[in-house]
Amino acid sequence: MIEKIMDDFYRISVPLPKNPLKELNSYFIRGDESDLLIDLGFRMHACRDALESGLAELNSAPERRDILLTHLHADHSGLVNDFIAPGRRIFLSDIDLRYLLRIISGDTRAATHLRFTTEGFPDELLSRIEKTNLTKIYALGVDGARCQGLLDGEILNIGAYRLQTVLVPGHTPGNAMFWMEEQKTMITGDHVLFDITPNITAWVDVEDSLGDYIHSLKKGFDYPVEHSLPSHREPGNYHERVNDLIVHHEHRLEHVHNIIIDAPGLSAYEIASRMKWKIRSKSWDTFPPMQKWFAMGECLSHLDYLRLRKKIYRIQAEHAYIYYPHTPAE
User: Fold this and answer.
1) Which single residue of 58, 144, 161, 220 has CA 20 to 30 Å from 256?
2) Residue span of the structural domain in which 25 resides
3) What's the longest Cα–Cα distance across the chain?
């Protein structure tokens, strides 16, 4: 499905099969000498077919098409190699580009595995997830030489549109939005979603993903946004939603803190099992393995936030770190 957003600016709906996100909003801008495609979908047939169909309807020629990624996740980057012609450019933030190349090289795999298992995630379950994780199977394999890293504030000019890079780390280490001042429009990517809450996980070598995300929400609030273009689902009131997301994580942090106060000595995996999740599952035991993996990452980002602000602390127990609340005297 194609939707005209503005003159020479379109949305292509890309389905995401067997994924709770349901679909990706891919955006296409027709320029004077080149065009720009923003985010693409998983490297799988359903995504490829929908994007090919949409671009064909828009008479998009590969030889004049550059690609812009809001961030490194596979549902945004997986199809890059299928839709980029020789000599064309792939843009994403410099931070996410460097991190993506680390992921592709396998540099972060062992550290991620170690973080999860030392926080109580069962090793056997994690190994099984790593073999069947669709976000890895359908991920991008890209030659870094074809990519151009963008810095905060850097501008891309496409036809009548001027896209300013707004670095908003949190959802990924180098997540970005793109601001079009003349149109008062923000391409929000996954930083601000309106029907669902962006997943904020703990990343290797990132000390405080959730702290970064909350700081980025406050940074992005200052833009006079009248129209928002998210990567998933429908748009909404930008400033109202930013405030809602900040409050959501304040409540979430209080919830996690109270779990530790009420039951000190739990591992992160046990804390995640006691958190409230919006998922159709009767109990933690019946959670799909991948959803446990996502839940664990989000739990860790909240624990990191609380620990760095000395609300809680952890000690090494026999099989995993366990968490305790700080008392006022501490």
Assistant:
1) 220
2) 2-236
3) 67
Is residue 37 located within the same domain as residue 85?
Answer: yes
Interval 103-137: pLDDT, tens: 888 889 899 999 999 999 999 999 888 877 655 65
Query: Do 182 and 320 belong together in one domain?
Result: no
- Domain contains 316: yes
Clarify whether residues 88 and 193 are in a common domain: yes
Q: Count structural domains, the chain.
A: 2
CATH of the domain at 207: 3.60.15.10
How does pLDDT run across 265-323, given as a tens digit for each residue?
A: 999 999 999 999 987 777 898 888 888 999 999 999 999 999 999 999 999 999 999 99
